[in-house]
Specification:
Length: 596
């Protein structure tokens, strides 16, 4: 994944780069680095860890350069280490690059560069040396541009680069191929960034670079080429909210965002209710097949959608992980409605699946939280969730907002297909308005205390609750590093029950009245093998039948995800806090997964 940023302009570049990197940190945070000019030579500072580690190192040096490039990394090639952190230089130190993406044929290219010594395991350093070799000491602007053009055709994969070259103290060069890169235009400066949100707040216009574009930025101008020719790309007003999000009274963004989850549902539903839906209704009317695609938490929201839509509207839904979807070559045609769920709207697998479906002529709906994201550019219809910026890597309020948007879609399906739906948008608004939710924080803290040192935990549910169990397990494993696995209750006895002994903790979700007896049988089966069951349920009559009972408010059965999920998110958070881990930046992960 990684985030790249570059600044050249009137002001000292170091602070601009730092501010931008902080906004890009969601793309990866295992190491970071900056390069700038000092006495006409390229200087580099790198640090392992988050941007704050880089900031500490930068504070030890006076950086006066008005041109710099910066990088925050999520390791793809080579572990998180100083050697592998960006920027990377060519062997002669005259070319310095930062990179987002993957060069798929880097090994072949590396084999052609026998005369070079490589200091890192990265594909980026291969690029730096290949580029420098082909530049062949040519330090005229046209040589550089020609070499950029040659390099972009040589590399396979998805990548964007920002490049500094000794002898060009006033220019930053770039390449964009399939990985995001925007160009920001301001009064007396230009910037490049993986995400427009990370452009300087004084940016006036933004240029969305196209795949195959390369060129340079300088203080007062920029130049874009494609296939050897100068091209013009549209300059649009810079409207992205430069949102500085604060934790406020909370101790982590995750805590804040769990709190905001209920409002995110409300806000999403309210906004959708006030929108013109003609296009959406038309698309649903014309659809003969419905596909739902996403990753991680987004797909878990999709599972709830599939279950409820199939029950309420007798409409079959084909659902899959975005990383699997297109390889199965699903039978999509122009009568298919494909729904892509993605908080960020930038997840590489989801984008690739959307492009696949588009190629088959389907109508595409994006359910996303980011209005300017790439998924909105691919899909025909955009259903925006209104969760606000989600910072924590563990997705919480975005899931709640996705549920809200997806339930809204179910009501539209009902209207179009003339099916009576058991809930209305007002029911969802009321959950927030009338505080129809209880979160027993004390009880949840107690449960966290019981399970925090476990090596392995089971999450079990049936029907709709199975999907909540899956999301609860994902949340807990993601931020506590405890192995958590979710099972459908009835499946336990087909193999997994053998894992249960008198040391096992099992988190059960039981919110569906029609499955109460069946689920209780499964609970008893597990208890008979010694399991300590922690039950999240609105059925208070069960409280003495388990090791620990976490009460939920009782709503119509299909609305139960709206009150069951936040307590499960809270359990993950409490556990993480008790283990003194950082819930916002779990190891090995990134907020936005922009590589396939
Ligand atoms: O931005 P997206 O919704 O496309 O992201 C999908 C997943 O990467 C994401 O939901 C991930 O599973 C979360 N970190 C889970 O908390």
């Amino acid at each position: 994944m990684c985030g790249i940023t570059a600044y050249v302009g009137n002001e000292p570049a170091a602070n601009k780069i730092l501010a931008s990197l902080k906004k890009l940190e969601y793309r990866g945070y295992d190491s970071a680095g900056i390069a700038f000019f000092e006495n006409e030579k390229i200087e580099i500072i790198k640090a392992v860890g988050t941007i704050s580690e880089l900031e500490k190192k930068m504070q030890q040096k006076r950086i006066s350069s008005n041109l710099a490039i910066g990088h925050t990394r999520w390791a793809t090639h080579g572990k998180a280490s100083l050697e592998n952190a960006h920027p990377h230089s060519s062997q002669d130190k005259k070319v310095c690059v930062i990179h987002n993406g993957i060069i798929e044929n880097y090994q072949t290219i590396k084999n052609e560069l026998k005369e070079f010594h490589f200091a890192s395991q990265t594909d980026t350093e291969v690029f730096a040396n290949y580029f420098s070799k082909n530049l062949n000491g040519g330090y005229l602007l046209e040589d550089v541009l020609r070499t950029l053009g040659k390099t972009i055709t040589k590399m396979k994969g998805s990548f964007s680069f920002a490049i500094m070259i000794e002898g060009f103290e006033d220019k930053i060069f770039f390449i964009k191929e399939k990985s995001p890169l925007v160009l920001g235009v301001g009064n007396g400066f230009h910037m490049l960034s993986s995400d427009e949100m990370a452009l300087d707040e004084k940016t006036e216009q933004v240029v969305y670079l196209s795949d195959g574009d390369y060129g340079f930025i300088s203080k007062n101008s920029y130049c874009i080429l494609s296939n050897g020719k100068i091209v013009k790309r549209r300059k649009l007003p810079f409207t992205a909210q430069v949102q500085s999000v604060h934790m406020g009274k909370f101790t982590s963004f995750m805590e804040k965002e769990i709190e905001e989850g209920s409002f995110a549902c409300f806000n999403t539903m309210l906004t959708l209710l006030n929108q013109n839906l003609q296009k959406l209704e038309e698309a649903i009317k014309n659809s003969q097949k419905v596909f739902v695609v996403g990753c991680g938490t987004a797909l878990h929201a999709g599972e709830v959608f599939k279950y409820v839509l199939e029950k309420e509207c007798k409409t079959d839904v084909f659902l899959d992980y975005a990383s699997e979807f297109r390889y199965k070559k699903p039978n999509i045609d122009k009568n298919s409605l494909c729904i892509f769920i993605s908080q960020s709207g930038e997840t590489a697998d989801t984008l690739a699946s959307a492009s696949y479906a588009k190629g088959k002529g389907a109508t595409l709906v994006a359910v996303t939280n980011v209005k300017t994201s790439r998924i909105t550019k691919i899909c025909n219809i955009v259903v925006l969730t209104r969760a606000g910026v989600e910072v924590s890597v563990a997705s919480t309020k975005a899931y709640m907002a996705q549920l809200s948007a997806l339930y809204f879609l179910i009501t539209i399906f009902g209207k179009v297909k003339n099916e009576k739906i058991s809930f209305s948008p007002t029911d969802i608004l009321e959950i927030y308005n009338q505080k129809k939710e209880i979160i027993d924080a004390e009880k949840i803290t107690l449960v966290a205390n019981h399970i925090k040192n476990e090596k392995s935990l089971f999450f079990v549910g049936r029907g709709l609750d199975y999907f909540l169990a899956k999301e609860g397990a994902l949340k807990l494993k993601e931020i506590t590093y405890i192995h958590c696995e979710a099972f459908a209750g009835g499946e336990m006895k087909h193999g997994s029950l053998s894992l249960i002994d008198d040391e096992s903790f099992v988190v059960c979700v039981l919110t569906q009245k029609n499955l109460l007896d069946k689920m209780m049988s499964n609970i008893i089966e597990m208890q008979s093998r010694g399991a300590k069951v922690i039950l999240f349920s609105p059925f208070s009559e069960l409280q003495n039948k388990v090791f620990c009972f976490v009460p939920l408010k009782k709503l119509k059965s299909h609305l139960m995800p709206f009150v069951a999920m936040r307590p499960l998110q809270m359990l993950a958070l409490k556990c993480c806090e008790q283990k003194s881990l950082n819930p916002d930046m779990p190891r090995n992960l990134a907020k936005s997964v922009t590589v396939e």
